[in-house]
Here is the input.
Amino acid sequence: MTPIPRRDRRPLSPPAAEVVAAATGGLSRRRLLGTGVAAGAGLALTACAPPSPPTGGPAAVKLPKDVSASDKTLRWANWTAYLDMNGKETKSPTLEAFIQQTGIQVSYSEDIDDNDSYYAKIGPQLRAGQSIDRDIITMTDWMAARIIRDQLCQPLELIQMPNVVNNLLQPLKDVSFDPGRQHSITWQSGFAGIGYNKEKVGRELKSLDDLWTDDLKGKVVVLSEFRDTAGLVMQSQGVDIDSDWGKAEFENALDFIEQKIEEGYIRKVKGNSYLEDLTSGNAVAGITWSGDIFILAYDTEDPNWTFAIPESGGTLWSDNMMVPITSTHRRNAERLMDYYYDPAVAAQVAAWVNYVCPVDGAQAEMEKIDPDLAESPLIFPTADYIAEKNIQAFRVLDADEDIEFADLWSTKVMGN
Here is the structure.
C-alpha cells in the first residue's frame, strides 16, 4: 500500500485528557484499590510482534454501503473486563467522552468469551453475507489472521485515522498476518500465566507445578484458549512454543491436562467466564490472563489477587479491532479506533485494564495518572523483560494443524 505521510495528531474536542479526568478524577483502578499489584519497566514490544498466519483467500469482496454519515450509531463486541469502567457501574468514562465528542451512540457488549465460540456464532453469518449486528469485533491474532484470510472483515482507511498512523507502536505497524495494518488495529496485548489469591492459597505460586497440589484440588480453573493453557503446559515440559515443535509435543500437553481434569485438580476449562469461579470463591487459582487479575482485585476489593509469569515462561497475545464484512458503519468504527489511539485516552484505559498498551506516548500520559503503573512491565514491557521471563507467542499453525489441533483439544480437554 502507499505509505501515508505523517501528520500532526488530530486534536480532540473537548480534549480527551480533560474529559477523562473530569469523569474519573484522574484515578486508576490500581489507585482506587489502594494496592501495588504491579511494578516495573518501560515500553517495548519489539520482542513480541505477532507471528505469521497461513496464507490464502480470494482477492476482492464487495463492501456494503456505509451509512455512518446519516446513522450515528456503532456496535462494538469485546471481551469481559476490557474497558475502563467507573467503579461498579456499567459506563466507561472514555467511551462516554467519545459519545459526547462525536455524537455517535455506541452500544458496547461483552460478547466474546473465547475466540472459537464467538467465531462459531458469527462465522457462518458473515460467510453468508448476513449482518451480525456488530460494527467492531475484537479478536486474537490467530483468529484475526483467519478472518482476514477468509475476507470476512473490511479494509480500513488509515488516511481517516491519523492517531493510529502516528501512535501505533512501530513493531505492530506491519504485522505479518496483516501487512500495513489494512484490516486490523491492536486493541490490547497481554500475557497468560498464573493468577491466584495469595491469602486463600497461603503461599506464592511460582511454577505451573504449584497448581497441582492436594490443597488446591478442585479449586483451579484453566483457559479454554488452547494456545494459552496448552502453551503454558508445553513450556513447563521444556518446549519452546514459538519454535518448530509438532503434534507429539502438543498431545503430551493435552494428555497432561486431561489427566489433571480426571484427577480432580482442574475444576473448569472456561473462556473469559472463568472470572466467575474466582469471584465466587469456587476457584482460588488458575491459568489466567494478566489484566483480569488486576480487575478481579479491584472488583472484589481484595488486594490478595496476584498474577505471576511461571518460572518456565508465559504466553503472549494481542487482540485486534476489526470491522465485519457486513457492517454498514465502517467510518464510525474508524473514528472510535482512532480515538482510542490518543495517548491520553489509551493511558486511561490501560490504567484500568492493566494490559499491554499498544499506543506510543501512553506511557508518558500514564505518569500523570499513576507513576507506578507507568513503570509496570505488564503494561509497558521491555524486550529484556520478555526475554528474562521467557514470554513467547504460540507458533502459527498451518491450516491443517489448526483444524487437527482444535479437534484434539475439543475431544481430549473440552469433552466434545
